[in-house]
Design brief:
The protein has helices spanning 2-19, 25-36, 49-74, 78-109, 119-148. It is mainly alpha-helical. It is globular. The two termini are 29 Å apart. This is SecA Wing/Scaffold domain-containing protein. InterPro entries: SecA_Wing/Scaffold, SecA_Wing/Scaffold_sf. Residues 20-147 form the SecA Wing/Scaffold domain.
């Protein structure tokens, strides 16, 4: 599970950088802190997206390692438990949204027959694209949620 968190961490950086690509550096830094839970390292505004990813990925990997150590201090096995919970909650949230979008797609694809295309084929193609976007989003949001979570001490 922790290997998956690390893999998704790199994916989370790519996903996040796609989302914020048109923002100013100040807004990117603010969004990064809200998304990952710590300050973004200093970036040159002239850096290419690939260079930014190469700088941020090790940063996120290091944060994942620190968070795992923090969770292990709290309770052995808690890092994996927290990752599973974060993933399930995130998938549940994203799945509900996807189902709503798929329902709306079903209604609009019916109009595809009027433009001469096959509605079923149109639904399959667009639905698959929507699923791929959701898949990337839930991976990134799972890591974000896991990194920002804090274990509660028993009272």
């Amino acid at each position: 599970v922790m290997d998956l968190v690390r893999e998704w961490g790199a994916d989370a950086v790519k996903f996040h950088m796609d989302v914020v690509q048109d923002m100013s550096m100040e807004d990117k830094a603010k969004e990064f802190k809200e998304y990952f839970g710590w300050d973004m390292p200093s970036l040159d505004s002239e850096m290419l997206p690939l260079e930014v990813e190469q700088l941020l990925c090790p940063n996120v990997r290091e944060a994942i390692d620190k968070k795992e150590a923090e969770y292990l201090q709290f309770r052995p096995g808690f890092a994996v438990e927290a990752a599973r919970i974060a993933t399930v909650v995130t998938i549940d949230d994203e799945w509900k949204i996807l189902l709503q979008k798929m329902d709306a797609l079903k209604q609009t694809v019916g109009l595809a027959a009027y433009k001469g295309s096959e509605p079923l084929k149109e639904y399959q193609v667009q639905g698959f694209r929507m699923y791929q976007k959701v898949e990337n989003k839930y991976k990134a949001r799972s890591v974000s949620r896991w990194l920002r979570s804090k274990p509660k001490k028993p009272t």
